Amino acid sequence: MFKFYNDELTKHISVILNYFKGNNLPKNFQTWQYKYPWLISNSDNKAVCKTCIEATEKNVTLPTDYRSAPSKEAFVVNGYNNWTNAVRGFKNHESSNFHQSAILGLSNKKTIVESLSSAKLKEMQEARIALQKIFTTVLTIAKQGLALRGGDNDEHSNLQQFLMMRTEDVPELKKWLDKSRSGYTWTHHDIINEMLQIMAHEIIRKYLLEIKTAKQYALICDETSDISRQEQISISVRIVPDNLSVKEIFLGFYATTDTKSDTFFTIIQDFLLRFNLNMFDMRGQCYDGASNVSGRLTGLQARIRDIKPRALYVHCVAHKLNLVVQDGLENVLYAKSFIGTVKDLINFIRDSPKRLAIYKNLQSENAPNLSPFCPTRYLNIVSIYTYVQAKRAHCRYWSYAYRHIPG
């Protein structure tokens, strides 16, 4: 026990004496370190090479010939303390093959963590490029109004075919799809639907920014039903930006169980709350002439004006024009007779492939195609031109038939 305490005491005394004694390094050692950054001192107050020691510890392949042995022995194993010829010794070591090999080996040598990090970073960059190309492909297909799947088989869907085409120019996408055939590819319909939803939300956010910048707005609503006979309400907003160019922004369809005014009012309130639009900024509201929306006492416009009197109601001009055209067609005898004759002739020709083929031969190349008559909507100028041209074509057809068809 006494020997143990004696040894410990001797060690502490030695440390204290060395501390007060100071090191035995030359005064110029710090100057040499500034000129030779690799130069450090060991516990024996001898000069050693930090670079060569690090290369040795990391098992870098270094030369073992007889010319390299002095550098290794002096600056790695034992240390260098020939202070009289210190500068010459430092220069010789710095220019030695042993030291240069250590520098080159450390520059090429990477730790396992660094190698894994680099590989992971490269993989992340490639995956990010692949995801970006999938996003842009989905966006392009959606903008063109094409079906993403295009059938029951996902392998032959429009999306997969477009992606396979893009792999010819994007090697990262090809590598991702080839690598992930047995795993995830970000092309499942749930993920694609989420992508479309993200894009839709981004578009709506930009529209909402325009609406809030314009401050005041007008509300446009109309009820309709889809192909499954599900009743829904379409909502649009009309604004006037700083350039005074009126802009209408469609913000979506909303399903409804009935067409009562209180139901519509609840939908409008939910719509304004969801998009963070203030009803007090509403300056107009536009609907058709149905009593559930245009009623002065309990209609939708009345309920909104009870909260915001400045939200003036305007009967939709397109609906009024439609009503005028329909009423005119029903009450003007010449117009009713003309449209009725054209309608019957159109149906007569379209019902027979033979008559339709004869009509196409008689039809001029620049003339619009023969379209069915729609009695519930007013006709645009192209449709009217179609009917007038159809009337002339019909006359030529009957004249041709009278001359060439027997009997």
Automatic annotation (TrEMBL):
* Bilayer-crossing regions: none
| Domain of life the protein comes from | Eukaryota
Signal peptide feature range? none
* The DUF4371 domain, residue ranges: 125-299
InterPro entries to which the protein is assigned, alphabetical: DUF4371, RNaseH-like_sf
* Protein name, as recorded: Zinc finger MYM-type protein 1
